[in-house]
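Quick one: structure tokens for this chain, please?
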Amino acid sequence: MQPRGGRGGAAARGSRSGSHGGAGAVVPVALSEVAAHQEARLSTGIGELDSVLGGGLVPGSLVLIGGSPGIGKSTLTTMALAHLAAAG
């Protein structure tokens, strides 16, 4: 019986997604060829945070907020979540 994941998985066999060569190889694309499209965004209710996020939160995305202890990460997150909850 082979263990699932961990050391007995694809990583142990040297298989990686995005590796070059073979079927499904990753091919670089020039930035000028990348099509731009608008993502629906949800406002956090905090103008400066929305600005930093490019207009708000993209549904399904993850945002990492880091900083020194006591700088206000939890307060900022609580305020944004309260606004999103009130907006429905």
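The chain has one domain: 26-88.
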